[in-house]
Structure formats: structure tokens, C-alpha cells
Design goal:
It is a single chain. By secondary structure, this protein is mainly alpha-helical. It has one domain. Helices cover about 80% and strands about 0% of the residues. The chain is built from 5 helices and no strands. It starts with a helix and ends with a helix.
């Protein structure tokens, strides 16, 4: 597994956190906010699907499978990506 793959995933996971935290956008445009969340979630799913499952750390794979994205991001950051 290459660092660029994890870097792209980390970027998408951070973007997801930003979207979730954007309460003003959610209050102003609920449908638009939901669409942003759907879009970033789709990108995360695509990036995860592209990771070589056989090379993933078991704990990291567990986070991804359970959609524990905060923990997955912390794992990536601890790995130095």
C-alpha cells in the first residue's frame, strides 16, 4: 500500500469532518449539505475499495469496515502519512 493512497484517504476523511462540522451550511441548505456529505462519503468508499486488502493492518481494516472514520484517520496520522 502506498503512502499516496493513504494521503488521499486521509484528505477525504478530513473533508468529511469539515462537512459534518459545517452547521451553518446544514441550517442554510439542508439538501446541499447532505449532498456534500454523500459526495465525500462516496469518494471515501472509492478510495477504500482501491486499497489492497491483503496489505492493510488488521486494526486499520477493522476501522474501515466499521466506518470508524475518526479512528481510521488517527491511525493514518499516527503512521505518518
Amino acid at each position: 500500500m502506498s503512502s499516496p493512497d493513504l494521503a488521499l484517504l486521509a484528505e477525504a476523511l478530513r473533508e468529511r469532518l469539515i462537512v459534518i462540522a459545517d452547521h451553518r451550511h446544514r441550517e442554510r441548505d439542508t439538501a446541499g449539505h447532505l449532498q456534500c456529505l454523500i459526495d465525500v462519503s462516496g469518494r471515501i468508499d472509492t478510495l477504500i475499495a482501491g486499497l489492497p486488502a491483503s496489505e492493510l493492518d488488521p486494526q486499520f481494516r477493522h476501522y474501515l469496515e466499521r466506518r470508524s472514520y475518526d479512528k481510521a484517520l488517527a491511525w493514518i496520522e499516527a503512521a505518518g502519512t
